[in-house]
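User: Round two. Same drill as before: sequence, then structure, for each protein.

Assistant: Same drill it is. First protein:
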Amino acid sequence: MNSLQDHIKLNNGVEMPGFGLGVYKAEEGQEVVNAVRTAIDHGYRLIDTASFYGNESGVGEGLREASVKRDEIFVTTKVWNDEQGYDETLKAFEQSLNRLSLDYLDLYLVHWPVTGKFRETWRAMERLYDEGVIKAIGVSNFHVHHLEDLMVAANVKPTVNQIEYHPHLTQKEMKGYCEQENIQLEAWSPMKRGRLFEDTTIKEIADKYNKTPAQVILRWDIQTNIITIPKSVNPDRIKSNADIFDFELTDEEIYSITALNQNERTGPNPDTFV
């Protein structure tokens, strides 16, 4: 990636921006509207929300207020756990689309692998994909065994797996598996909710390039082929997060950041989260 407008080709041929805005915990209403509009006006082309976030309506309003046409923006949302199942997913999709005020989605994700339900959820998503109202379907928070279980019965391979991913949780096995299967990894909580900003290794690299620790981490993401969606509602931070295309980490620096892994999560483990 050389700019915010650069894309990564998914396994179904759809092109997805490699950098975007996450809106988890952005308040419905003017806060999320302003964040989406600011991001798009600054060059972002990927916006990631979820029904669980409770702000799809505000995201839709922000999209309408932005200075860019709809077909230039890549919009992702997700089906929540209590919406899963075949009929339930079809209904949840319509509700999300209505709240967003969109005619189609670019990417729809299974938010978590709900045991006993995610296969039926996927079957409904395949139907919506076949009908052309979703350009790509994928998953979120799936372990390797969840993906293997899903693909036994799937007609369409997931294009994306959006997971918690940051220098303290590099998920080596998952990354290798997704590379082998041509499933694109996408990072949520890429900065571990700010808990990595005081790390000595990251701070030293940031000082070298006159960048912030956040910018170094996000640069590490894109240089290791991870789509990343940092969340912010602060206009200056939204702009700062995207200012990562005027420097390049060395192989040694990428290795040293990756070596910070502690297999440490800020969110739930998908095997135990209900």
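Second protein:
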Amino acid sequence: MRSSSKLNQYWTDLYFHLHYPHGEKITHQMVRVLQLIDKKDRVVVNDVANYLDISHNTASEHVKRMIHKNYIEKKRDLEDERKVILRLTDIGKKVLHENTSLDEDKLNHIFSQMDEVEIELITKAFKLLSERSKSCM
């Protein structure tokens, strides 16, 4: 099995066993929009359309629904007042965390069973993958 296949299997195992219970009903596309806004600076509706490979009108409808659910808000860009920037609300940050992160209580339980060397090894590996992943966008 190739390294990438192994890593994908390990990642899906990790997420399956360690994700937060899903409370809020949210679509996969909404999660992706929340991630985009969280990870990128100054996201506008056109960025959402490009990221999801959908029309501007469809992206605008997604954004409207997410504003209605209080996941995101619109703010005028201070540098260019013609632009409207999308930002996560506190509720949006919470929903994003619960739908994309690993449960910290479960992780802490696992880490409590490891020694410092193991924890450091895992942390360094994930940091390296995180840093290198940013060059793929």
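The beta strands are 72-76, 84-88.

User: Perfect.
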